[in-house]
Amino acid sequence: MTGHARLVYDPMLTAYNFGPHHPLAPIRVRLTVALAEELGLVGAAGALEQPGGKGLRLVSAPSAPDELVASVHDPAYVRAVKRASVHPYRTDLDFGLGTSDNPTFAGMHDAAAHIVGASVEAARSVWTGEALHAVNVAGGLHHAMPGSASGFCVYNDPAVAIRWLLDAGCPRVAYLDLDVHHGDGVQEVFYDDPRVLTISLHESPRSLFPWVSGFPSETGGPNAEGLSVNVALPAGTGDAGWLRAFHAVVPPLLHAFEPTVLLSQHGCDSHRVDPLAHLTLSVDGQRAAALAVHDLAHRVCGGRWVATGGGGYALVDVVPRTWSHLLAIAGGEPLDPDTPTPAGWQELVQVECRRPGPQSMTDGVTAAYTDWSTGYDPADEVDRAIRATRQATFPSHGLDPEL
């Protein structure tokens, strides 16, 4: 079952640009939307939506006003971002601005606020019932803290979207972070809020940024014990281990929490060729994850699903294909993994990137896993990570971590 869906996007979202040598290159967003359009997944802007229809309607992305950004971010930090936007060579290290991860650039505030506006628009359209699913592939900037930039993220669009939902009267929101890096900024904002469940599956911070957070022992503040959930997977984890962890942790907790809306972040830097991390998933494994999230949205919250992009630094080979699979799933038309990439998109890649693009929407992998019900293997690093998370959080939800 699915319903009408939206892609919130306009080309100006690619103005979020740290410069030609920065890993977070906006071409990845442009190539994703171009591939989705070439595959016929996205309808024209302004096209009528039909309840129960398939495909994604393209809607424009508004910019977030200052008061919306300030619902999560400290006013002093917003002022610092604005100053740096006008004086792009200014550093303000007290606010994390001007580092190699977060260099300043002209118009930075407007570009970041635009991404926030797109994610809030996606959340608004789902909450009001204008769409059942809504996606902002330019979003997912989950590392930004209330008072500082971090990890390529200036403003935390998922956190602002969640705050908007809560302020609009949504009783409970589940945030599911699939990025290879811990969703530390969103966890920080809602660590003591009993209305928000945050679940992050990521490479262990023992081997990857942000280094200091994302351990199973981080389970929520005094008012929200068990509502911060972290699955810290060992470097080298592939499709089978990652999917085993996902299905051992995520469905039981979502069913227990009963969210009203599910917001997911689909960073695809868990892929085996991503240059900034050490997990070994395939596009096929990431597609399987998106299918599972879609299915859970329908099982636990009536299909109300907001999805964002996130990390992903294999700009041509991975990001456009993984996020096009996400868009196809959100639009009710999952792609056959063996679908060839269209000739028009291949030409665009050649012109823009001066290299060939992948020929198919698959890595040629069958994304299979062994269910947790088969039993715990104490010699397996992935199983030890899963068990640590279940033991830390399941009892708070009335769940037996050993079953």
Automatic annotation (TrEMBL):
Single GO term (MF): histone deacetylase activity
Stretches assigned to the Histone deacetylase domain: 22-328
Bilayer-crossing regions: none
Highest taxon of source: Bacteria
Pathway of action: Ketone degradation; acetoin degradation
Coiled coil region boundaries: none
Keywords from the UniProt entry: Acetoin catabolism
Any single GO BP term: acetoin catabolic process
Family designation: Belongs to the histone deacetylase family.
Protein name: Acetoin utilization protein AcuC
Species name: Actinopolymorpha pittospori
Lineage per the UniProt record: Bacteria, Bacillati, Actinomycetota, Actinomycetes, Propionibacteriales
